[in-house]
Amino acid sequence: MPASRPIWKGQLRLSLVAIPVELFSAARPSAKPSFRQIHEPTGKPIHYEKVVAGVGPVDKDEIIKGFEYEKGDYVLLTDDEIDAVKLETRKTLELTQFVGACEIDPIFYDKSYFVVPTDELAEDAFRVIRDALRKTEKVGLGQLSMRGKEYLAAIKPSGTGLMLETLHYEEEIRKADPFFSQISAKKAEDDLLDVATALIDKKTAPFDAGAFKDHYQSALKELIQRKMKAKGRKITAAKDEAPERPSGENVVDLMAALKQSLEGGTKNKSTAKKPAASKPTTRKKAS
């Protein structure tokens, strides 16, 4: 069992079958450097106080939650009143619907969690649900409550366990039309599409998350180590030479650029700025 503490304990239910399970966050929050604000003259961390206008700092015991229903007017709620709200999803995640694994638009996915049975007695039923989802290529949908919120969740097999993905509700997703309405629906030209498709096929490979690294976070960690060794002295961050990427001003002929990408060749700047195979007296205007 992992050393981290579960963020939720309850039952995973399918009809009359209830399985005691635990949820663990799949992401490591400590994987990236975190920073605090520091008062430079003294080197001490900055702290924030909760204050009320005209009153000043207040004690945390005097603070309750409030919902602003009109500007400046609030409905006040105590923790006991909020806790009294009864939700079946507090301790039970019931799978109420199943959908195809590819039916959920990726825009709805939010955070990932590992789902594991709490003990060996729960493993038999756990494996049945896991293998049934894998065999049918379905994703189970349900709702659960944690951290003061009710989440829509998707359950799918992952290795020997299950993965839970919290989903955004429909009202939480922006409509795409205001952003995409100005983009033409005109289809791409067939010859350009063929070359672009061939380029995609050439670069297609099985997904391997380990092949991608967060270079910014690595550079930050390296900078922190250098500062620690320098014992507070100012240092100049090393600037690695990034590989040259084609900019918009260098791309004159779209077909030539696609074919060059497909061949894996690299032209120098002087060559890239010249249109491909154009006659001296007749130059086609770029769209």
Topology diagram in text:
Blueprint: E1 8-14, E2 17-25, E3 38-39, E4 44-45, E5 51-52, E6 56-57, E7 65-70, E8 73-77, H1 79-83, E9 92-94, E10 97-100, E11 109-117, H2 123-136, E12 138-146, E13 149-158, E14 161-167, H3 177-180, H4 190-202, H5 215-230, H6 254-263, H7 269-272
Parallel strand pairs: 1-9
Antiparallel strand pairs: 1-2, 2-11, 3-4, 5-6, 7-8, 10-12, 11-14, 12-13, 13-14
Helix pairs in contact: 4-6
Describe the 3D structure:
With 287 residues, the protein is an alpha+beta fold. Among the domains are: 8-28 and 85-171, Ku70, Chain: A, Domain 2; 189-200 and 250-272, no CATH class. It contains seven helices and 14 strands. It has an eight-stranded mixed β-sheet with strand order 9-1-2-11-14-13-12-10. The chain has a two-stranded antiparallel sheet with strand order 3-4. α4 (190-202) packs parallel to α6 (254-263). It starts with 7 loop residues before the first strand and ends in a 15-residue tail after the last helix.
Features:
single chain, 287 residues, DNA damage, DNA recombination, Prok_Ku, two-stranded antiparallel sheet, Ku70, Chain: A, Domain 2, Non-homologous end joining protein Ku, 7 helices, 8-stranded mixed beta sheet, double-stranded DNA binding, disordered C terminus, alpha+beta
